[in-house]
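Table S2 (continued). Query chain:
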Amino acid sequence: MSDAEFSKMINNYFQNDYRERGKVKWNGYFLSDHTSALKREAQAKNAVPVKLAMMSLTACQNILRHASANYEFVTVQQNIEDTDGNLVPNVTGLVDGFSDLGVYINESYIAFENIRAVVKEE
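Corresponding output:
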């Protein structure tokens, strides 16, 4: 078989017979990453926060104001329980702002009356 015939045969194969599998050939790589991400998400979702000691509203507001002024991360534990009697997940992040009745952390609004404790993250 000459080089010209071989080139013609190869070109014909790729133009007419070859089918690219596309995403299918990469699914093996995505699968392990996806399952590990799902496991991490399930663990975070099912984690039950440990109850922190109840703090006064003034102490919580002082920590939140200080964290807002110094761009520090805080964790806010709310005094709200789910149907099983467990506290709702803690909210961690930067203080985005305040309103008359609450605080915004990572675009989540938390009313002052629902705050159980505030901890500054190190």
